[in-house]
Design goal:
By secondary structure, the chain is α/β, with parallel strands linked by helices. The protein folds into two domains: 2-146, Rossmann fold (3-Layer(aba) Sandwich), CATH 3.40.50; 152-397, Arc Repressor Mutant, subunit A, CATH 1.10.10.10. Helix content is 41%, strand content 16%. A hairpin with a 2-residue loop joins strand 10 and strand 11 (352-359). Helix 10 (205-224) crosses helix 11 (229-244) and helix 12 packs across helix 13. The longest helix is centred in the middle third of the chain and has 20 residues, at 205-224. The radius of gyration is 22 Å and the shape is globular. The protein starts with a helix and ends in an 8-residue tail after the last strand. The model has no long low-confidence stretch (mean pLDDT 90).
């Protein structure tokens, strides 16, 4: 154990110095610092969103802390004994543990550390599923914080050093967004991978994203769920099918049929991919008897399977779902009787219901025929402004 402890202390000091290179901080940084209470903090999010850098920045800010990368720990490491030793021998109070899910029994250790040691823990994980799957009750011991890819608002802050206020759907409905329009020229770059922080230094982010997706499928998912290699190939085949297909009608049943697996397996794999931050599973609301969820991809994963121009119609919907989910807004997709076309999303926001249609210049009031909900909004790209119309990219300022 002593050699591991010394290695941890050495790498932690290097991490502090490395953090000094990054002047700007993700918006989540302040929430973590300002959070009060005894609970441990878990930062979960997709690979590539900057969790490791955020943790290193925290180590620089919290002087009684140590940064621990699970890369240097054997998977069977007793985290309780390790943290107890560091606390007692070196008076370390706060432990910043990166990618904690690679320790096979970390949920057990978190419970015991919380119950028996007087320390603080902030950890990261790329797979939120492992916390939900755990047989240990961590609900009162751990508070989760989600580090999503950049919103448009955060992207502009990092790229242009401009911090714009959050807006809501009432602002979009009323046209209160003039000062934001000058930044729409950044939207295409954002959709092509600019939502990931590494795009600020990497001119071809999709090549890195392809490697990230491989690691998610063949490293992260097996770390928390016992799937054999052929099953992981099945997960990859599902992604290819979704990426190349129209999202309309994309459900558990249609995926199972086209990929050649059972509906049960399709649902299992899709939920794994959602918990790994690759897909958005949207639940329906409406009068149709069929109540299967709709499956969308997180941006820009669809661009690994289709060219931007071919995928743009689908990406608009992917983007909207991404922004709504990251903003913590309750939303559903709408279903109607006999498959009649309906607007894309029903949203509950600030105690108001909104019906949202996502589309291009040709979308008009006809899209809302038969919809009784008062608040209606069309999000357009290419952009059109006017009554109940707003540019789509403005959904990126909801948080």
């Amino acid at each position: 154990m002593n050699n591991i402890v010394l290695k941890i202390l050495e790498l932690s000091e290097k991490s502090r110095k490395e953090a000094e290179k990054y002047e700007k901080k993700r918006f989540l940084f302040k929430k973590i610092i300002d959070s009060k209470g005894k609970h441990f903090k878990g930062i979960v999010g997709a690979r590539g969103t900057g969790k490791t850098i955020l943790l290193k920045q925290l180590s620089s800010d919290l002087k009684d802390s140590v940064y621990i990368s699970t890369d240097i720990l054997p998977y069977y490491t007793d985290l309780f004994s390790l943290i107890k030793e560091l606390n007692e021998k070196y008076r370390i109070k706060t432990f910043l543990i990166d990618e904690i899910h690679f320790n096979k029994e970390y949920t057990k250790y978190l419970k015991n550390i919380y119950d028996f040691l007087d320390v603080n823990i902030i950890f990261t994980s790329s797979v939120s599923l492992s916390l939900i799957k755990s047989s240990y009750d961590l609900s009162r011991r751990v508070k989760l914080y989600y580090l999503y890819p950049f919103s448009i608002r955060e992207f502009i802050f990092f790229k242009e050093n401009v911090l714009l206020p959050i807006i809501d759907f009432s602002d979009l409905q009323k046209g209160n967004y003039e000062k934001y329009l000058r930044y729409e020229y950044l939207f295409e770059d954002y959709l092509k991978g600019g939502n990931y922080p590494f795009s600020l230094e990497e001119p071809f982010p999709l090549s890195l994203l392809e490697n990230i997706l491989k690691k998610i499928v063949y490293t992260d998912i097996p770390a928390v769920w016992n799937l054999n290699y052929s099953e992981l190939n099945g997960v990859e085949n599902i992604l290819k099918f979704i990426g190349k297909s129209h999202p309309e009608g994309m459900s558990f049943s249609s995926i199972a049929k086209n990929v050649g697996i059972t509906k049960y397996k399709a649902a299992q794999y899709l939920k794994l991919l959602e918990k790994s931050f690759v897909l958005n599973i949207i639940y329906p609301k409406g009068t149709n008897v069929l109540k299967e969820p709709k499956v969308l991809m997180k941006i820009p994963y669809r661009l690994l399977y289709k060219d931007f121009e071919d995928a743009l119609g689908y990406i608009k919907e992917d983007f909207t779902a991404d922004m709504l989910k990251a903003a913590g807004i309750e939303f559903y997709y709408l279903k109607s009787r006999r498959g009649k076309k309906t607007p894309d999303f029903l949203i509950n926001h600030n105690n108001k219901e909104f019906v949202i249609e996502v589309g291009g210049r040709g979308k008009g009031r006809a899209q809302f025929k038969g919809i009784e909900i008062k608040n209606k909004l069309i999000l357009t790209y290419p952009s059109v402004t006017g009554k109940n119309k707003a540019p789509l990219f403005l959904a990126g300022f909801l948080y």
